Amino acid sequence: MEIRRIDIGETQAFWNLQKQLDQETHFMMYEPDERKYEIGKAVSQIAHVDFIIGAVEDGDLIGYLSAKIGAYLRLKKTAYLVIGILKAYQGRGIGHQLFEHLEAWTHENGIHRLELTVLVTNAQAIALYQKNGFKIEGVRQEAMCVDGQFIDEFYMSKIYD
C-alpha cells in the first residue's frame, strides 16, 4: 500500500472512490447517487484543496485525506479536513498513515489548527482522530439527517504549539 498525492490525472478514480464511499457509509456528506459527476467540478475539487493524498493498493485508490486552509487572513493557520477510507480497508492502520503524512505538511505550512466534524455515531473514526491527537470541542446538534434521523456531529480539533 502506498500513500501519495492525488493529482489531476486521477480525477475519475477519485470521483469513483467518493461515489463508492457514498454507497458504503452513512458517515459521509452525500447520500448514495446524490453526487453528480462533472469533470470540471471534479478537477476543481482536487486542484483547489491545499493538501490531498490517497491510499493506493494494487493501483486502486482506497482512501484519501484532504485539507483546506481557511480563505481569510485570520484563518490562514487553520485547515479543515475530510477523510474517507473504503470499508474493506478500514481497521488496517491506513487512517493513521494518512495522518502521519498530514503531519509533515502541517509543519511545513505553519498550520496551527486542524479541524473536522464527525457524526457522534462514528465511533471508529472518533477513535482514530483521538489516537492522532484530536480533541472534541463541541457538538453541532442535529447537524445531519440520515435515513430520516437527525444526528449530532462533534467538532474536533488538533492544535499545535
What does this structure look like?
There is one protein chain. It is built from 4 helices and 7 strands; from the N terminus they run E-H-H-E-E-E-H-E-H-E-E. It is of the alpha+beta class and 161 residues long. It has a single domain (2-115), classed as Gcn5-related N-acetyltransferase (GNAT) (Aminopeptidase, 3-Layer(aba) Sandwich). A 7-stranded mixed beta sheet has the order 1-2-3-4-5-7-6. A hairpin with a 2-residue loop joins strand 6 and strand 7 (149-159). It is globular and about 35 Å long. The mean pLDDT is 91. Residues 1-161 form the N-acetyltransferase domain. GO terms for molecular function: acyltransferase activity, transferring groups other than amino-acyl groups.
Write the layout of secondary structure elements.
Elements: E1 2-5, H1 11-24, H2 39-47, E2 51-57, E3 60-69, E4 78-85, H3 94-108, E5 113-119, H4 123-131, E6 135-146, E7 149-159
Parallel strand pairs: 4-5
Antiparallel strand pairs: 1-2, 2-3, 3-4, 5-7, 6-7
Helix pairs in contact: 1-2
Pfam family, one: Acetyltransf_1
Domain N-acetyltransferase: 1-161
Keywords: Transferase
